[in-house]
Design a protein that fits this description.
homohexamer; alpha+beta; 11 helices; 5-stranded antiparallel beta sheet; elongated; two-stranded antiparallel sheet
């Protein structure tokens, strides 16, 4: 059965699907009756469902991180679509569920993103491509890279977020290299490699995205360099990059956060490393703005022009313009 | 007579041209003899000339900011080309010289840059173009904009630097808007308008670039907004942008430095303002890197791989890679 | 009917007045019964009123920002005066209420403050007075200036706060100019003009003080300079200040926050601008201290010597001395 | 013989006086000849004197910190008055000279400043005055306080600077207490006591102002509190301030720098301590501005409108307005 | 009767002891019934006790800071030991209780710590010991020092914490002085004296640890120096340390926080003062780590490897390794 | 021939040895004559030698980084010992000289330091020792580690400085682990491994210490982790540490600078990592203090009590106490 397409649900639609319990809050109505606010989701989005007084006992044992079979219809509650359960949700045995299918996911096509990556690889000079291919021509790595989020929370924190973010960084860095006279294939390689350490830093689980032990203790920047050297060691000595070339690739990884305060081991010392750093920020902050516009905590009412409070990701309020330019 | 093309001079070339005295230093040789180290320049570059012991008295009265007629030949001194004067330089009367002709200048074609600006204007929706044209369809403003540097010292500190910088910012911002889903004509308008206040902040004089009184007391960001309102007031009321549109344009100017610490009155509150801010930084820092590579204070010897000291513009050392990627 | 004089109410007093609903909180007693904690106010102050279990339904539809007709008596609850409602409050139609009458207001006489402003204007040299009068001799502006708060929350956040704050700043700046050898009329003009942009930055509404769109997107400092140039343009050319004089007045506005981190476009470059900056801070922080002493969140009990927590406005705890000096 | 009145010297005046050698620099003319640039001074100011080639040997042994008998005439050199020595300066034996007579000094009358202090003391309530008088009714302390500078370099770094600064602080703090509702005698006591530790922190010697060992190791803030407790211990127990009163006076001393980063042990926790802090800053920065206007390093040419570089005391450039307001 | 040994209680144990009410929270069960969560403690630790619905009224008037007689048995609740009350707690009259007996206390033996202090004193040269003994040979001071915590909340915030912390600092500073060539007895004296001001800064009361008025208004660093001078004044003049020696001891106190931002009046200017500063930090942060490992807010579940959130004392997450090194 | 023992040279001693030219400055006497100030050194120290007017030409071609054969005698010049050359120095061919013999060196015995290291290794549990021995049981690594400085300039910037620093850190960390309850062998392993990356970051050359390309582009922290993984890969799989153990060792390296601003990839998350961090700082700053006491730029005169200026390594002035404690 095709997964439920949450963004397209309309009032009155009937739902009989497996969904992941993302959140459960036990609350009380103003009149003192217990109710449970659920957030249920899959890779297409998240849907609220309130369970009232008499049905509360039926949810005993239902916890975030579980996949449940739900039956109900879509109704409108306080101006938003919501699921009205017509039967108590039934917990689906763990083995049958894959986290990737139930966590939020990029809306872009993974295949199209990989096609772009592959086109960029095809243009690279041999010495550069040999290193990039250690990762990006390896199916196991591609699969891992495809499912890793860009962060546990924050920018691109969705399945596929790392792939999308890396492509955005590459595109912006390529454009600025073109304008500012930088080496385009080189900065592209930097963009593809800069965040590879995130594949070992973040865990994708039904309970959500989390840090791995290595992610906590070392962070993705160090892990990226360790991964690079580990794969370089698998190349026959004659095919390895020169010492300078190897150091330049490590330098992209180590400097991409720009300054030590933000985790860079060193500041960017080449034009290309600097352009990569700005492209990385541009993709991250651009994604923060896009997410802010649809964040119901920032804009609880659709009439609002300014966010009700500061976005913690952007550390400021944001503006949703109401005018047009035409 | 065509101005001297300094970058193309070869040892043995004969020089008989007007040049601007950029610097004069009265020094002593190790053996205690007086000599004068001159830096002479025009819009194409700068050339050193040492005047030795017996000729020192002939330079009495020659000061930076004067244009002089020089006669001499190009010779090699400590591995660099230098002018050997065969006659004492003669000061040219002030009236005859225009600062723009003697100060360093962008190497790009001004016409080509304007062609890009005009193509972008042509694509803008009417409401936006009307405002942009208040400046960019005004020949007097274009002339002023063409000669203003991007800074008195620092990035793009050459005649035409503001035009070049604005075009770079527009290009990078357009590319990132394309990638991140921003409004391309709008961010282009922001890029063109963001630094207009610099035309009133910097003075272009034979003695070099300097701040104007208004530049010192208010800075280019406030001046930009004052200029915008001044020109908007010349539009017939019906042709004026709406209140929201006007505020959005001011917001580009006021937020483009990103954070108050760097002079922004407010932080960027829209995706487009954020993208403009990053594009501004990318152009500025990219230019800093390009200049660093040819800065003889940073790289006194051509064999050096790392700059001898920190670049004050980049606040770090920079690396000139010696390897190739092929 | 004269508005209720809240600070003078005594236990047993009967109340039958229109009051603004400032806050409404739906809570539960320890035994689980619903009750509503109201804060009702007018320009003289704020009064609490709890509505218990059986009357809760009568408050349906009563929301902050509404003016209600209340009937009740003053009683003592947990050591504080409180209103006991004897009938459900009745919502008064919107058209009949003006925000200024129901929001908190300075206790000082507006007329006396204006008398001081007018006396200072009378002492100014003609060139200075002509500019100051563009605003302070204009009745519409005076009315606007009279009702604007000094902030939406924070120092002088009451109707009339901007007028009071400007007068305090003027007085302190005049005294320090006298001591330190500054130009007294000039620093007075700076004090009157420094915050004029706040009239366009803050909205005074029944729901409370808020930022306007312009206040959010540009801030009061930029708006002040735009307003100054707008009014200067209305002077006949011969009556306009010189370029230097105009820049000096803008410089007061742009530098009064002292450093860029706090929003100054430039740092104060004259003695008078520096004195204005310190006077501005002194008035603001002095007002913060005065408010802290009567803040029941900081001093929940009257016996307390030190505030129970940090004042967010002062970022520290404050001390209410219990001794006298005599 | 009355000391030389340096500010009133005119070209052609004859000088035969004792002056302190403030600086001595051994230099060379452009033609390679040795010469010595002296700065000679007394309490009224400083005077330059160049000693040329043939007279250089006569200055052997003349060092900064010595008092010399000079004979010469005033002439004009590069637009400034300067002393032309007609005989080699003769070193005056050390015992005969007092540092106070030869170091720069405030131009205000010490007696008038003390008269103000005494008037303020007379207005104080008894409990406060008893503590203030421990210092300010003690002739030995007054003498010490009269000669201490406000700093070794920086604001009020002249003999009498501490007295002048303390009076300025008192005046500004009194005015702001009047405006903001503070306790005027209390803030005056705070102003008089806040810097008493400087009398033990700075040494006044012919070689100039310097830190004492205690000033280096503890700083004037801690020393002030130690001095206060030392003198309080001399009061009969019944005349001592209460514990709270004593702590409040210490609190003025400990908090007057406002924040720990600038040396405050604690932040000001009362209105009066806060007002004292701002008054302290206002006096210091106001003095920095006054000094900047006559600083020939900042304004090497009298035509300059903006200082040639940043003032290190103000950390910014300053503006000398050329227009008038009338 | 011996006080209850809380850490050693086992399920089923019977309790009939006096305990201090540390916290009381009035809450509701999910089904809406009221209950009270108590935290009861003595010097050995803290124990939870929930009082359910029907017994809630019996706890009327029981407040934190009171000592109560409790009767009950130990049971297991959600995996933790908890007290089940079998009778309502009875409030013990105030006079009968000493705060020291009921607040948490160091687990180390006070006598052993004093033995170390005394051994260190015995090794000190006479001039140093004379000053140290002014405090550490005075029984009243020792008693005070024994009961003072190291902080009101934060590191060593238990009865005896100051003594333990001072010993830890001394031991670490002695070891680093041995390694780095510092004066061992001197740095030991610094370690013993550095925090003496805390005895006047913190109050030990049944309601918990709190700041005294002097602690709020001046802080422990200034108080330490005032205490030192007060006791030095009691020495006969011939037995007093020299001026330099006295200043060096004050310098230890004033510089031990390292930088002004953290409260140091001056930065450490000697090797020994620097070593003391690092030893102070090492003891404080080491204690923070030890406490974090047993903090149930950081590690709500015993299976957790990483703390659930940041420790506010360490400003980071901490790791509880699960492996062994053997 | 044994190398010259510079610290033991006495006036009148005859010198005929090879020394490294550390600095050469071409200067002029006050009377305008040229002279050359040389600094000559070997592993025991540095010696000044001035070459006067007539001998200047004989030093043509003598440059820093060369080893020269010098002949002369020790004389006293301005209170310091200095070499008077009796013959022009003769340049020794490059091949014959090893940088280690001519650069400054620790005064401690390398053998004794290694003995301590080996004793610590002997106490380690097997799983820990296996990793430590990958480096410290490898003669090639020991040789490299023995000659690496602790920094290119700054603390321990001498041949052998890294070994000495690592031992100091180990000793201090062991003592604080003993006091604070940490794992002693583990923190010792951390101390030995924390700076291994410096062996690849610094170059030891006759011209002095410098950064390698890898040191510039990545820094010693990243290099340390890359080196660790490289050597771990050489262990047979069964002998490798577990994943957690490996991460803990990397965590020591990555966190030892404490906070990102100072280069840490992550903050220390275990007690042992925190203790290592403080021990590292203690050794570094302790060494800074020791060096400051003998630095003739800080103490140009032996009578000085306070350094003439701030130490750039300690960012403050330092105090050389003149009293004794006995």
């Amino acid at each position: 059965m095709a997964p439920l397409d949450i963004p397209r649900l309309a009032v009155g639609d009937r739902v009989q699907h497996e969904l992941l319990v993302r959140e459960r809050e036990d609350k009380q109505t103003k009149s003192g009756d217990p109710f449970i606010a659920l957030k249920l989701g899959n890779s297409s989005g998240v849907l609220g469902a309130n369970v009232w007084k008499e049905d509360v006992p039926k949810l005993q044992g239902v916890r975030p991180g579980q996949v449940v079979q739900v039956i109900g219809t879509i109704e409108s509650y306080q101006g938003r679509r919501q699921l009205k359960l017509t039967a108590p949700p039934r917990v689906v045995p763990l083995g049958a569920a894959s986290a990737d299918d139930f966590l939020p996911r990029i809306t872009q096509s993974t295949d199209e993103l990989w096609a772009r990556v592959d086109a960029w690889r095809a243009e690279m000079p041999a010495s550069l491509r040999r290193v990039v291919d250690l990762f990006f021509a390896d199916d196991a790595f591609r699969q891992e890279f495809s499912r890793t989020p860009g962060a546990t929370r924050g920018h691109h924190a969705v399945v596929g977020g790392l792939l999308l973010h890396s492509c955005e960084v590459a595109e912006i860095a390529r454009a600025s290299a073109r304008t500012m006279g930088g080496n385009i294939p080189l900065v592209t390689a930097g963009a593809l490699l800069h965040d590879i350490g995130k594949t070992q830093s973040y865990a994708v689980e039904l309970a959500g995205f989390d840090y791995t032990r290595a992610g906590q203790l070392l962070g993705h920047i160090v892990l990226g360099s360790l991964m690079l050297d580990e794969r370089l060691a698998t190349l026959p000595p004659t095919a390895r990059p020169s010492d300078e070339q190897r150091l330049e690739l490590h330098h992209f990884i180590q400097s991409h956060h720009g300054i030590p305060e933000y985790g860079a081991a060193v500041r960017p010392m080449t034009l290309e490393a600097e352009l990569l750093h700005f492209a990385d920020n541009t993709s991250a902050k651009g994604n923060d703005f896009a997410d802010a516009m649809t964040d119901t905590e920032l804009f609880p009412s659709v009439e609002q022009e300014f966010s009700a409070k500061r976005s913690w990701r952007l550390e400021r309020r944001v503006w949703k313009r109401t005018h047009r330019w035409d």
